[in-house]
Amino acid sequence: xxxxxxPDSAAYRAGLKAGDVILETNAKAVVQNGDALTEMLDRxxxxxxxxxxxxxxxxxQDILTLKPETN
Length: 71
Hints:
The chain is an alpha+beta fold.
């Protein structure tokens, strides 16, 4: 469960919200949680990779793409 989303983060820009549950990243089931998942997502974005996220919000599943920041 996402506890909070930092303003101006990739998650914020993509539309993730506190309370969302991340189920998959790039079509792979999430087996990490908490800080380990955050670190994995941050590392992928820092390497310039987009990450497709399947998540659940209020009982409904949806998909979005986290995109690395471009300067």
